[in-house]
């Protein structure tokens, strides 16, 4: 069984269309080569239309069997694994930022959409009529992306909105199964999600997930369940893992950037620089400034 760990990169090998600013891409599953290194994976949502193949989407302690055709929605804060059970799938996918649909005052908010909302059901199985309709939309989007039309992005936004609203009208398929080792999977996904927050690449971007309850919410499990699973599998607490990763990133930023301590504190999710100073000194014995000067 071939397994694809999804961290907001495209699992296909396809040529893709990139607009500047990097807000949208569309690709056909299974074509040639696809590289997505030029965008910030934490900012992107993904919509996939799977036309053929059988697969399994796993996240936290539940999963969904996908028998094509299906429409799949994933958001940038939930890591997951997608296992292909038989042949390579076919279809389309697009990745887009929230700002792509907010262009010129549009009001669509992907984070609040029921399709992408944490704890929602990301899989929509399709009948033949829905499949034909959605496939035609993806084809139109790709044609527009390849065109020279000056206002093609406006056309694409309208087509993406049609996909979103078509899905909202559907009821998600409920074909859950319990993974045989739920604790192991929860712990693995927590560690993946933790690592996904880094590296911090701008002092203006604060970490979105700061404590165990934030990670539990984004993995759709109770915080006590998350803590128990991580402790069972790793022998360490969720908070200990978070603190260690924060400390590693803090040291790296102090050593390799010229950001002020206040900027570093903000980027790592500390409301006040004094909180960061206390955290750093507690775990290293020195203040951030003393650590920086000693390098």
From TrEMBL:
Q: Name one Pfam family in it.
A: HTH_18
- SUPFAM superfamilies, sorted: Homeodomain-like, Regulatory protein AraC
- Supply the alphabetized keyword list: DNA-binding, Transcription, Transcription regulation
What region holds the HTH araC/xylS-type domain? 213-294
Entries under InterPro entries matching the protein: Homeodomain-like_sf, HTH-like, HTH_AraC, Tscrpt_reg_AraC-type_HTH
Q: Does the keyword Transcription apply?
A: yes
Against PANTHER family, the record matches this protein to: ARAC-FAMILY TRANSCRIPTIONAL REGULATOR, TRANSCRIPTIONAL REGULATORY PROTEIN
Q: What is this protein called?
A: HTH-type transcriptional activator RhaR
Q: Which organism is it from?
A: Dyadobacter linearis
